[in-house]
Amino acid sequence: MSLKKNIIANYTSQIYVTGVGILILPLYIKYMGAEAYGLVGFFTMLQAWFAVLDLGLTPTIGRETARYFGGSMSALAYRQLFRALSVIFVFIAVLGGGVLFVFAEQVASHWLQIATLDLREVLIAVQIMAISVALRWLGGLYRGVITGAERLVWLSSFNAIIATLKFIVVFATMNIFGYTPFVFFLHQLIVVLIEIIGLYWMANLLLPKKNTLTQAIGWSIKPITPLLKFALTIAFTSSVWVFVTQTDKLILSGILPLAEYGYFTLAVLVASGIMIISGPVSSAIMPRMANLHAQAKREEMLQVYRNATQIVSVLAGTASLVIAFYPKQLLFAWTGDLALVEAVAPILRLYALGNALLAVGAFPYYLQYALGNLRFHLIGNIIMVVLLIPSIIWAATHFGGVGAGYAWFGMNLFYFLFWVGYVHSNLVPKLHLSWLFKDVILIYLPVIGFLVFVKLIGITMEYQTPFFTLIGIVILSFCALIIATISSKFFRNKVFKRFLKVNV
Fold it and tell me: What is the pTM of this model?
């Protein structure tokens, strides 16, 4: 499967999944209430924190799958590794989900700030969450196999089906049985079961057949031993990533009333669309870069790296800047609720800017992943977590969601300005300045200039109806995207090659 098709499939799926997931949020608040939606936000956060238990196993099986399909691993060794990881995954899923289930009563009665919801119903909802997050995390093993095999077109289509069941079909279920947290989370549990069955089926199709192996697979921890350093490094950095991206949400879930926490979650979820936009690129290039490195094709690997940076700068960068310049208009077009707009817009702007920096600043990790050495990523994340977590705790405790937003933006700016260049200079000397200016800054600056110009000439897009405000946002975003595309050498070359048969 070509890298181009994988990226297109990923983006098509992510646009749909993200779009339906975000656009449907006002309906959750409308029919379930803000407090019940706070439980939905809490559920999303739990899934992220559960990733701490991954121990680096999901990206490890993805990388080893890419190596197997690249010819660097035998079929027997690969099957032995998969079986060993399967046992570990099941054990951790049962352990993690069980602990969360046992402590569900404490979470419901002592941590969440409930005002009107029935405590018993909240308790049952948290127990269902425990089972759901454990099962969904277990599916990471099979996702790793499918991603490493670069079967991303199938995975993208499957993700779209699951998103439809999760976000749209749930309203049909609630319309029949009631708009309650119990009905919502029971529906999500059924969808998770469908999801893990589908992933398991596809992963098993990709595994080498047992009758082709030279000996019995057996079970041993030995296949994992050579990968422990790489896996544990990823485990630590993944844990740090969860701490970095989810500490604010965890702290605020215990501080804010559940209804107010629902509004905060809404702002963060919209801003997370920036990271979701960049996700398909990373999913596509990480196995490809690992494969190219295994074949000693360094220049091709670096070209994939730089082209992918430009793709993210054009798409995620444009989205983040439009959101940052026009958060109130976007929220009004989306919800039509002026009170919600005033409460959420300041948080949305800060998280959008922080996520834009994070999306591009994550690229050195992809390079280290391909090289199989995450030492610099490990050190960088230690620095980040040491600075960020105390900042977010203090800011969120004293200033709520806006304080958390300032801490998030400030720390990501610091990381991008200082650490990314340091990593590049150690891994690929003389790369950083060219990467920074040609692949990032020269794409962002024209878009910023355009948006500032629009502001200066007094175009505010504040119309009387959400529909006309939406039209204004769409037109503005389209213009900004065209400017970003023209500013990217990668996209210019694509256009000129297609129509003029020359490079620029």
Answer: 0.74
